[in-house]
Amino acid sequence: MTSLNATSDIVTSVQADALILGVDANGTILSHPQLPAEAVTPLQAAADLLGVKGKCCATTVLPGTGTAARRIVLVGVGEATARELREAAGTAARCCGDDPDSVVVAIPAADDAGYTALAEGAVLGAYTFRDYKTSAEPAEGEEPWPGTAWHVAGASDAAIERASILVAAIAGVRDLVNTPPRDMFPGAVAGIAQDIGSQLGVQVEVWEPERLAQEGFGGILGVGMGSARLPRLVKVQWKPEDSKGHVALVGKGITFDTGGISLKPPKGMETMKSDMSGSAVVLHTTFAAARAQVPVTVTAWLCLAENMPSGTAQRPSDVIKIYGGKTVEVMNTDAEGRLVMADGLAKAIEENPDIVLDVATLTGAQGVALGSRTSGVMGDEAVRTSVVEAADRAGEDFWPMPLPGHLRAGLDSQVADLKNIGDPMGGMLSAGLFLKEFVGDTPWAHLDIARPAFNEGSPWGWTVKGATGHSVRTLLELIENHAQA
Ligand code: BES
Ligand code: MN
Ligand code: ZN
Question: Are residues 92 and 197 both part of a single domain?
């Protein structure tokens, strides 16, 4: 198992597969209380010879001759902000050789937040998902992958504890999303939520299909009825005794999105196991709030369905009834996320939370507008602003987007209260306007994380290939800030 420790040993005396050192913008190796100056001199000479510049996240690997480590990884940290330290540690963590047993990070940070960032970045940057690699089948009595022991020199226990909570949440999201959809269907997600919830003392309630029908969750049922594995709604609640407010989170949990009868082309389907990212994020953010004992009530609603085409699937032109009674004409079964989210939002606001945030891989248009690293946030201006500010502090990228009133008319239906697609231009915004119909007066923001949730490109910083866990950091930051507000 991967472990994360602080160490007070002199770095050059610790046997390690790799020793990660920081380099400032002038190419100078950063001194560290546990790094003797005489040990650094030859490394600095080597760095100078190579012309190491120290641009943030630029890495150089040197042999560890003369040190206790096999290799030295030099990484640029820019201005050494928490965000830069996290990104730099993440990049450096992938330069430590194959399956290192132990790595020492000896980059100085100004405070606990900086050490937490280093620890988070290193462990998350080195994350791999190997559950389906046959080489992981262990010999008798052996662990499949022993994992890496990470030592962050100079970090306090509190800094490490904090990093462990975020790492568990983000890696937890990645594991759920990376698991093939054959194994990660609505009932499986509900079961995992119940297992972890009972360990943490977090309440978990599951709506089985019969109850969804009795209580009128027509969005989740409509989307899920084409699959042999029927949908679920899951409520996960962290309710501390000293609660100072209530934040509701609603997550899109399409365990696989084929598009349904409005079938996607094969290319468009390749990443669609990621369509449950929103639900994985709200689930693990709630667990992180519990682990961190945040004094705010957090209620997560996981809207889980598999969008499949079949003889029982919903058709374009069908009319469904969302929880609470509004009717929707389903013109395109691939615009399914907003249907399950409408049920979840309508249910979530019944409890009168202070704010409701919904998180969804909702539209391809998000990526067209903002690219693959920046999520869009829409909704009430004050809530939207707090999301952007929380993201800035947390080291993630969100950008505010409008909900132009004139696009609302495109969602009018001839036969029902609404239809599920509107003007083809500005698809992210029409989807947001659709959701707005279901939040009543509750202060609300909608987070469209379609592309940032799943990295199809090369790894960068602490973001690996595949599921990223994007937006956990922002949401936890926002919830913690809510306690002070
Ligand atoms: N899950 C997709 C959105 C998506 C696309 C997420 C690419 C991540 C990467 C969503 O259900 C969808 O299919 N949206 C349609 C809506 C359209 C039919 C109005 C889209 O964006 O094409
Ligand atoms: Mn879809
Ligand atoms: Zn979808």
Answer: no
